[in-house]
Write a structure and sequence with these properties.
The longest helix is centred in the last third of the chain and has 13 residues, at 233-245. A hairpin with a 5-residue loop joins strand 8 and strand 9. This protein has 10 helices and 11 strands. The two termini are 33 Å apart. It is of the alpha/beta class. The radius of gyration is 18 Å and the shape is globular.
Length: 246
């Protein structure tokens, strides 16, 4: 199968404008992401709406494609980029442009899920280690079926463990944190970007619920690797410390 990566990277982040160009250990964040991705997938493109990001990618020898500025999600930006580059890839991997510590093993796990022909979309989950982390609404939870397909994603703590103290729930159920890396079969990416927002998506503000609610199946791979995404300037400071100590 032919896999490529497309990395959406926009400039106008509300919490951290220009974060793909923020410097981390002497390089722009987007360069770190690109280097990690191309350790596994030699063909990678940065999809951006900003000339500064486009030129920065070109400067370090990467591939970049300009996309519209009005996309409501990274998935929509990836679909436009895939059309523009006229890719013949079977599967497109979506790695966020603010994940400089994405690991090759995670990308390999994601791609391996497509060995099963029933996989339409794939993503990753990581076991939670504390109940405090489980209760964080900024860390969506995944519930899967016995075959590894997602049943639901939620910002709430799901499932509810009846008859036990909340502090002990993690001993009763293996809560799974969703990591925002995806891969899609080419035709599925084209289809899901044509769907209107769904009621569950609006309720939880989780785009992947649109796909589930419309009958698409999302296979979940498991990783035990923790990464440090960058959403704020404070995250960048933590990333510098993580980079220095890893």
């Amino acid at each position: 199968m032919h896999f490529i990566a497309i990395i959406p990277a926009r400039y106008a982040s509300t919490r951290f404008p220009g974060k793909p160009l923020a410097m981390l250990a002497g390089k722009p964040v987007i360069e770190h992401v690109y280097e990690q991705v191309t350790k596994v997938l030699p063909e990678a493109w940065v999809a951006t709406d900003d000339d500064r990001i486009f030129e920065a990618v070109k400067a370090f020898g990467g591939k970049a494609v300009m996309t519209r500025a009005d996309h409501k999600s990274g998935t929509d930006r990836i679909e436009e980029a895939a059309e523009k580059i006229n890719t013949d890839a079977d599967v497109i991997v979506n790695v966020q442009g603010d994940e400089p510590f994405i690991q090759p093993s995670q990308i390999e796990t994601l791609c391996s899920l497509f060995d099963n022909p029933s996989t339409q979309i794939a993503t990753l989950g990581k076991p939670f280690t504390t109940m405090d982390a489980v209760k964080n609404p900024n860390s969506p939870k995944i519930v899967t079926d016995n075959n590894g397909f997602a049943l639901y994603f939620s910002r709430s703590v799901i499932p509810f463990v009846r008859g036990k103290e909340e502090a002990t729930w993690l001993e009763s159920y293996p809560y799974l944190k969703h990591l925002g890396i995806y891969a899609y079969r080419r035709e599925v990416l084209r289809e899901v970007t044509q769907l209107p927002q769904s009621s569950l998506e609006k309720a939880e503000s989780l785009e992947q619920l649109r796909w589930l609610q419309n009958g698409y199946r999302i296979r979940v791979g498991i990783t035990n690797v923790e990464t440090v995404g960058i959403d704020t300037p404070q995250d960048l400071e933590r990333a510098e410390q993580f980079y220095a100590t890893r």
